[in-house]
Amino acid sequence: MESDNIYNQLKKLLEESGGKYNILEEQINIDLQVEFFELINKLSKEKRDESEILHKKERLFSSEASNEEKKQILAEFSNTENPKTYRIIERFLDSDPGDLYQWAVLSLQHCRISLETHLLDEQQVFISTGLGGKGDKLRHFIVCKFKGDSEIKNSQKKALQAEFEISFSRYQSDIERLSYFDSYFSLLGLIPLDISINDVVKSAILESNGYGDFIYDKFLVTNVKILKIQEIQRHFKKMGL
Q: I need a labelling partner for 202 at 20 to 30 A (CA). Which of 36, 89, 150, 186 fits?
């Protein structure tokens, strides 16, 4: 299951980081993140003198500079280990950057990690997903499917909500939103990195099914994005449901 893969990847990251990591809290498009880190890798191989980089500061705030030019400047600033560039990115982020907001958030976070790695002389692990996180928890989009064609009872909905809240609480996790649509229900939840998503959701489904065995034990989990109904249906069809 995808939830097993997510948990195993996070477990490996935790082991590699020695428990020291930084979670990007913002929800940022995953394609944009890929573009950002590909540019960072390229810039790392062609690192310029910091004085040349800082010389671009005025262009960052100029209305004449294109968004592509500003993205390059922000990425270069974030790749330095200089508190000055951190403050410049911070100021740019506070200036209402419009379409460049997510790029600026990534730049600021990356600059902070670079600074901490340099000043503390220890490698910092940066964990970023499409749905972000909070504190030591990552945000996940989880979808379950009801059995049968008939609409579930209000009593079952109440039981479901109660049991999921109990299960999430038992595993130091939080439910931010729970929604019903068609024959599915979804939730947006925050789960600690060292907790198995499988354990949290399976426990909740098992307890909920004590009220009528109305939820399939197969479910969908992703931390990339909130899926559309067509994508959800396609995933469950692949599961044979």
A: 150
Q: Phi-psi region for residue 172, left (φ > 0), alpha (ψ -120 to 50) or beta?
A: left
Tokens representing 5? Answer: 């893969």
pLDDT of residue 131: 92
Residues constituting the chain: 241
Task: Supply angle C-alpha 148, 141, 110, rounded to 5.
Answer: 170
Q: Which two tokens stand for residue 42?
A: 């390229």
Q: Name residue 146's beta-bridge partners.
A: 215
> Rounded CA gap, 175 and 139, in Å?
9
Three-class SS state of 19: coil
- Is 30:130 a contact under the CB 8 Å cutoff? yes
Look at residue 30 and tell me whether its pLDDT is greater than 80.
Answer: yes
Q: Which residue, among 41, 63, 43, has the nearest Cα to 53 in the 3D structure?
A: 43
How far is CA 236 from each of CA 38, 164, 177, rounded to the nearest angstrom? 33, 21, 21
What is the token pair recorded at 128? Answer: 């970023």
**Amino acid making up residue 204:** A
Q: Which DSSP string corresponds to 123-152?
A: --EEE--TT-EETTEEEEEEEEEESSSSPP
125 neighbors 139 (Cβ within 8 angstroms): no
Q: In 26-129, which ranges are E strands? A: 125-127
Half-sphere exposure of 238 (CA within 13 A, CB side): 10
**Which pLDDT score is estimated for 80?**
84
